[in-house]
Design brief:
The chain is mainly α and 84 residues long. Helix content is 55%, strand content 12%. The protein contains 6 helices and 2 strands.
Length: 84
């Protein structure tokens, strides 16, 4: 997990910047979930942010805080089954 955080703050940023500069965006469906009671909901507009990176992204807030699968497993599972 720590390696994932390290990459997100270093090489992933370089790759993301290069992709944006070249006009490349992922051509994949993306479902974004975040906690309705967490920092993300209070500080950001996740769907707008992800929509800039992946056109056509969909999503919504889940009745949870930071740990969605642990706090709202049924809701997360329903979202996953509908998406996949």
């Amino acid at each position: 997990m720590c390696e994932d955080y390290r990459a997100a703050a270093t090489i992933d940023l370089e790759h993301d910047r290069a992709d944006r500069a070249a006009g490349r965006t992922p051509d994949v469906p993306l479902r974004v979930l975040w906690g309705a009671h967490g920092v993300v909901e209070k500080q950001f507009d996740p769907l707008a942010l992800w929509g800039k990176a992946v056109p056509g992204a969909t999503g919504r807030a889940v009745d949870a805080g930071h740990y969605l699968p642990e706090e709202a497993p049924g809701e997360v599972l329903a979202e996953m089954l509908a998406f996949f």
